[in-house]
Design brief:
Blueprint lengths: L2 H8 L2 E12 L2 E12 L3 E5 L6 H8 L7 E6 L2 E2 L5 H11 E4 L11 H10 L5 H14 L15 H13 L5 E5 L7 H16 L4 E4 L3 H7 L2 E6 L2 E7 L5
Parallel strand pairs: 3-8, 3-9, 6-7, 7-8
Antiparallel strand pairs: 1-2, 1-4, 4-5, 9-10
Helix pairs in contact: 4-5, 4-6, 6-7
Length: 238
């Protein structure tokens, strides 16, 4: 075993799913999924539409509960948490980036981002300070007072990434983060996600975009018919 392999094995497990099943009436969305994601990994989940990718993401985020099986994220057994506990877990432990940004149209960019910290009890001044740091790091400081409708798609996704990072989450979840972007903006968001992972952010990407997976992820999990069909280590492509 190489030292790299040993290092991978000793890194903290951030996400553990054990035999997770999710049924919606007569439909089985997840059928006995077991999965581990370790600190600092970038994992891409791919598969055809309707295979269970988004259900998997929602269960890890505590937005949905499994029919059976256990889900542990950053030491929290999500099955033991109340709805209020799950809401606090999401605010403190999880950052989420969506295909269509999910920004509040009536707030300027900086306030969209600061709000995430204020919801966890940070003061307005603390929240704005942290938001400004992130805007600087993500190269959008000059767009902080602009409303979402006046931002480009790439800028909106950067604002959404800043919001997701506000509370220094243990895990960043991205659901088709380049799906609504043109190719240039998509490239910029790929670079951003790769940079975040290279400084230690744990990532889970759900995507149809093979280029996003091979560019940003170090491991690919293939899902078919609600089951993990295969896992592969990826060599990142430039």
């Amino acid at each position: 075993m190489t030292s790299d392999d040993e290092h991978d094995r000793t890194r903290q497990v951030v996400v553990r799913l054990d035999d997770v099943r999710k049924e919606y009436g007569d439909t089985t969305a997840l059928d006995g999924v077991s999965l581990e994601i370790r600190a600092g990994e970038a994992v891409a989940v791919m598969g055809p539409s309707g295979c269970g990718k988004s259900t998997l993401l929602n269960i890890i985020a505590g937005l949905d509960r499994p029919t059976s099986g256990t889900v542990t994220v950053h030491g929290d057994d999500l099955g033991q948490l109340t709805e209020t506990g799950l809401a606090l877990f999401r605010r403190r432990r999880i950052g989420m980036v969506f295909q269509f940004f999910n920004l509040l149209d009536d707030l300027p960019a900086l306030d969209n981002v600061a709000l995430a910290a204020q919801l966890t009890g940070a003061s307005s001044a603390q929240a704005r300070r942290r938001a400004l740091e992130l805007f600087d790091e993500l190269g959008i400081a000059d767009r902080r007072n602009v409303y979402p409708a006046a931002l480009s798609g790439g800028e909106r996704q950067r604002v959404a990434v800043a919001r997701a990072l506000m509370n220094r989450p243990a895990l960043l979840l991205a659901d088709e983060p380049t799906g609504a972007l043109d190719s240039h903006s998509g490239e910029q968001v790929m670079d951003l996600l790769l940079d975040l992972n290279q400084i230690g952010q744990t990532l889970l990407l759900v995507t149809h975009d093979e280029r996003l997976a091979t560019r940003c992820a170090s491991r690919l999990v293939e899902v078919t018919d609600g089951r993990v069909a295969g896992e592969h280590t990826l060599e990142r492509t430039p």
